Amino acid sequence: MKSSEEKEFVSQLEENQNIIHKICRLYTTDEDAHKDLFQEITIQLWKAYPNFRGDSKFTTWAYRVGLNTAITLYRKKKKTIDTIEFDGSYHKVKQEDYNFEEEEQLKLLYGAISELNDIEKALVFLYLEDKDYTEISETLGISEVNARVKMNRVKGKLKKILNP
């Protein structure tokens, strides 16, 4: 990558790293796994960035890469995926600390979400991020109608889990 592309990537990553943290929170149960998944998603974003054409927003693209990485990792029940060398010190990405105490009140919701399948988790995540159904359908690669139907079903599932 050219130096200007690297700077743009690092800037975009710093501005939008909470997206990655939220994905990690959905698909991991402890801080070490969270950090590992964060690193894997960052590496996959780095590898894929030269192919980012800007047809969609950076955030939509990052959601898609991040969710696909998380789903692939945890569906196959393996802890690593093929990666390239990434010298983080060279790029000096400033990582914000993710405060787990602040999320304690969300534990119940995350517990309910953890009972969903991988695609349902991704759908809820995007919905909670206030993404419209057009962006959700583009990110997940399904039709807008299908996204709406699935979301209604997931809402029903979550109600049953939270209010047995």
From TrEMBL:
Identify the keywords attached in UniProt to this record, alphabetized: Sigma factor, Transcription, Transcription regulation
**Gene Ontology biological-process entries:** DNA-templated transcription initiation
Superkingdom of the source species:
Bacteria
Q: Enumerate the spans annotated as RNA polymerase sigma factor 70 region 4 type domain.
A: 108-158
Q: Does the keyword Transmembrane helix apply?
A: no
Domain RNA polymerase sigma-70 region, by residue range, is 14-79
Per its record, what are the GO molecular function terms?
Answer: DNA binding; sigma factor activity
Family stated for the protein in its record: Belongs to the sigma-70 factor family. ECF subfamily.
Please name the PANTHER family in this protein's record.
RNA POLYMERASE ECF-TYPE SIGMA FACTO, RNA POLYMERASE ECF-TYPE SIGMA FACTOR
Q: What is this protein called?
A: RNA polymerase subunit sigma-70
